[in-house]
Amino acid sequence: MHTNHTDPRALLRAAGLRVTAPRVAVLDAVAARPHSDADRVAATVREALGSVSTQAVYDVLNACVRAGILRRIEPAGSPARYETRIGDNHHHLVCRSCGTVVDVDCAVGSAPCLRPLNDHGFVVDEAEVVFWGLCPTCGSRERQPDAAD
Predict the structure, then answer these.
(1) Exposed site from 43, 85, 107, 149, fewest CB < 10 Å?
(2) pLDDT mean over 134-149
(3) How many angstroms separate the CA atoms of 46 and 62, rounded?
(4) How many CB atoms lie within 10 A of CB 22?
(5) Which helix (H) or strand (E) holds 83?
(6) In this structure, are residues 41 and 52 in contact, taking their beta carbons and an 8 Å threshold?
(7) Are residues 92 and 130 in contact, defined by beta-carbon separation less than 8 angstroms?
């Protein structure tokens, strides 16, 4: 049972990182709004703590990614985004219009759920897939007839 999975203090301690207010606030911000970019995380942290530099938020995000507490995803043409869902090799859907990002479970099972035809001798342990399209809201806008038609 993963009772400490959502407790930022326990996650930080388990990763060997000091528990600080900015670290806890960053983990809380990412947990509350998965797939947020660093600017959104920084704004949320400032709402919780007051004055915190953007560089401090980037430092915390990078330390947590290195420690395996957060996952960084980088959809093409978008700033890096962060999430607390780690270790399950899930994938993402990205809306080409509004940039919404949502999780998609692995299509075939355990990691890596996709394997290259030729692995060139690599030991593959993860596959990262991004599905692109239009979210329901943007898709319905695209399908609405133009007033000139």
Answers:
(1) 149
(2) 74
(3) 18
(4) 16
(5) strand 81-83
(6) no
(7) yes
The residues near 7 (Cβ < 8 Å, ≥ 6 apart) are none
Closest CA to 22 of 86, 50, 31: 50
Through-space distance between the first and last CA atoms of the chain, rounded to whole angstroms: 58
For position 109, what pLDDT does the model report?
A: 62
Helix (H, G, I), strand (E, B) or coil at 72: strand
CB atoms under 10 Å from CB of 79, counted, come to 12
Q: What is the largest distance, in Å, between two alpha-carbon atoms of the chain?
A: 62
Beta-carbon count within 10 A of 25 CB:
22
Helix, strand and coil in the chain, % to nearest 5: 35, 15, 50
Tell me which of 2 and 84 has the higher pLDDT.
84
Q: For residue 141, what are its two tokens?
A: 């806008």
Residues 91 and 106 sit within 8 Å (Cβ to Cβ):
yes
Buried b (16+ CB within 10 A) or exposed e, 83-109: bbeeeebbbbbbbeeebebeeeebeee
